[in-house]
Automatic annotation (TrEMBL), chains A, B, C, D:
Protein name as catalogued: Transglutaminase family protein
InterPro entries membership: Bact_transglu_N_2, Papain-like_cys_pep_sf, Transglutaminase-like
UniProt xrefs under Gene3D superfamilies: 2.60.40.2250, 3.10.620.30
Domain called Transglutaminase-like: residue spans: 160-224
Classification via Pfam families: Bact_transglu_N_2 (PF21295), Transglut_core (PF01841)
Length: 280, 280, 280, 280
């Protein structure tokens, strides 16, 4: 499926200020960039770095005093595998690829070490597999209120499990923490999200599972707000700390980001009910 | 019902050390002290204070260097009201006696302010009354593991709701925090607990409800370990901070306390299934 | 010294809503109410309760749907003792009046139990006495930024000691927690505060010390924003949970409170540099 | 300088249990492995993975029921650069290599986001450079008690800054969190530590600074317990989560690890007082 997407970010700084952005979409087998363009106003030099272990594309721009705007547009082909959820199992610790160990560790906003007993008591008796991760998402959806402004940049899964409110970032963090607590590698994904209303940068998560086409990352959205087969990945990481769309090194004023994404041709197709595998 | 009970506490200090104890049972209409005796080894002067708003009996003893032992024994008649749980409701905020407001406030180990959404989401839809508080206890019993050593003196309800393990103190704190979050006054109770096995100082909680005999405090034990009509109260307070059985002001060595309680005559009677009202 | 003071509070509710207020000033030997009046618009019945152990005066009013305004005015004579700070010492645990034990316990927003080592390492080597408590206030003043909006109703001393920002409530909580951690009884005080700019309800704390006129409560303001001899007490408590100026039991809209206080005659007198003892 | 070092780890499991170990030393320009050997009792297959971005060497071993012992020995040449601390500065955000951004992010045990104000208030006015990081270490050394058993696997920098006690792991976490809060990339290092008494696995941290030989990682030990030029690195990571020496996937019994390290020839040389740069 083909998507046209983009974002427009506006800032004002008073002193020269370096910014790191992560707004460009990633490139990997299931996600092909057909075209893209990045426009800075005023224009200026860009430093780029693509993180080898994640494919995240980071930009650094040193912004001069005054107004600054970054506009990014892309056309992307998305071809995730749509698979039968019932055929997808978990992976025993003895079989986990060693390079995914980092996605089992607790991280700043996903304190899986403090949530182990909770995770085991609540989900430990369910049969392992895709449906168990889906049950975690259902539990989050049923037990946490989605309320804009109810959390902030310091809010973590440990807070959310008790306070029971948050936004997509918090829902994803809690899903990740609970998966890791059960021994399921999980990672945070920032994305342009088709059908998310209102449009915004979205956060979901992926769990490493073993399905009919082998081991790979399956995407989950505990907010149930976006189409799982319409998530165009920007970055993956251990948690939100790693994939902020904008990190300014200094005081800035900003406007809310504008974000958009349109599906081509099949915008009225029903959302998939299959499991969505994004990457091996 | 008549109980013989007591405790024996042993300490060793190296410098003169003041101790505050709260081990003597309280006296109130439903709890009559038939006889009691307190023995200090070595003997020495005792300062006493009974807190007017709670009836808690505090002792201060200045212990000289060396070994110190306190032994307390009492015979107590317990006559709580046993009432039909279905006839017991909650009390509207407009009708709450103003003097119980303190038992609605969050306290050190019962952060009801941080657990409001959780409490409302989990128990808010249940019909108000004794059975709702009982449902809170059932939830705690079903979702928190009773594990000796899994918590410490710093553990609070906010921790327990996530970590899902604790001892009687933690079970009581969580019950109190959830009640207060729902607008139900609740207080911590330390007690000699009939049939608790192994015997020890026990912690339960009381909620203020409105039953067939008027407004009063009803006792709840979310550990389900003791007979609710066999709890001889030592102290009540906002949480464990207020009713420590021993507070030494200095470094001490100690042995585990010995605690005992025997019911007279009817030690084989079944535990009551009625609601137990201790105090108006 | 005589003060004219008052507050005006405005709310709007959609359903009948009980409110508890604590805005009327306390009466005790060093604080005499010359005159006062309370006006409700619309008028209605008031329930009153004065807490025996604190003297706090609580009002309950059941507010009908619509706009509601409470206006309180009083003229108060304040005669605290002004004493030489150097002559004021701490009180050994063996000598503490037993009825102040509650002000040594950790409370919701003053987790003295978690701050013991910090308190001892930072202030443990200072000579005990008024000046040690003053040093705690200086440390808070020097190390915590006073920033409106940087904390909220859930913020506690444990947070403030690390986050290093807050408002008067947080400064008082931290002072209390550090005193208790050192064995000094301390309590939270809400007050009308002369010379506080801009005027608002203020929060300070009192520590129990032993001076030339015997044991008593000495007031401290770590914000250094108000005149210590111009604090007209509304309530005292273990922490802010106990002396909220307004507790509505339901959803309300409100305007920021208006608060005022004027000193009569000597409004240009210098602030006292003596220790201020309010109550024995 | 040449070191002979090793460790011996003993476990007992009741069911087949996968273990991941990170006890083998890393290989990089300043650290050459002359010889090493790994011995398993009973012997069995080993899976290996070296993490590209860190050089950490992970082993996975599937342990059969019964006793299991791993013994590792190595001879290592260590040639860190010893440089003049005064010539070493910090790196402006605009100049930071983009691949070290991950070491600026908050992590599970290093919540730099929650410690920003504290870090800036305490260390923000110091001149940037090696000596500022050294001042952080001095502050930790002066304000945190090194007490075995005073912290556990869940303890984080946010806890330590308030509780003021911990072990090498906690000292390192706090140093890392404070550096990151000031914009200095910092990473956790597990090591065999020459002259550490008693011998054990040690934890220190490295900060990215700019010295006479260019940008690189400088090692800091806020415990002041080991020789900074005698730290043989096992692993680096964002915090302890990433470089646990042993991660069993299941219940195990274990003995305390035996760890040893000897310097060859110059065991009586004084500890270096220069800055120690380990890696570019």
């Amino acid at each position: 499926m083909r998507f046209s997407l983009g974002s427009s970010l506006a800032y004002r700084v008073e002193t020269p200020t370096p910014f790191v952005f992560n707004v460009e979409v990633a490139q990997f087998p299931a996600q092909t960039i057909c075209s893209e363009q990045l426009q800075l106003t005023p224009s200026g030099p860009i430093e780029r770095w693509t993180m080898p272990e994640s494919g995240n594309r980071y930009l650094r721009i040193n912004v001069e005093p005054g107004d600054f705007r970054l506009r990014y547009e892309a056309v992307v082909d998305l071809n995730p595998q749509l698979l039968d959820a019932n055929a997808i199992g978990e992976i025993a610790a003895a079989e986990l690829p060693l390079e995914v160990l980092t996605h089992l560790y607790p991280s700043r906003y996903c304190q899986s070490d403090k949530l182990e007993r909770f995770a085991r008591r609540t989900f430990g008796a369910l049969p392992p597999g895709y449906e168990r991760v889906n049950s975690i998402c259902n539990w989050i959806y049923d037990n946490v209120d989605y309320i804009l402004g109810s959390s902030d940049a310091l809010t973590s899964a440990f807070d959310t499990v008790t306070q029971r409110s948050g936004v997509c970032r918090d829902f994803a963090h809690l899903g990740i923490a609970l998966c890791r607590a059960l021994g399921i590698p999980a990672r945070y994904v920032s994305a342009y999200a088709w059908r998310l209303d209102p449009p915004d940068f979205h956060a979901v998560f992926e769990a490493l599972l073993n399905g009919p086409t082998g081991i790979g990352w399956y995407v989950f959205d505990p907010t149930r707000k976006a189409a799982p087969n319409g998530l165009v990945r920007i970055g993956v990481g251990r948690d939100a700390a790693e994939v902020a769309f904008c990190t300014p090194f200094g005081a800035v004023e900003f406007e809310p980001p504008e974000v958009w994404i349109e599906g081509e041709g099949d915008a009225n197709a029903p959302m998939t009910t299959s499991a969505v595998k994004t990457e091996a």
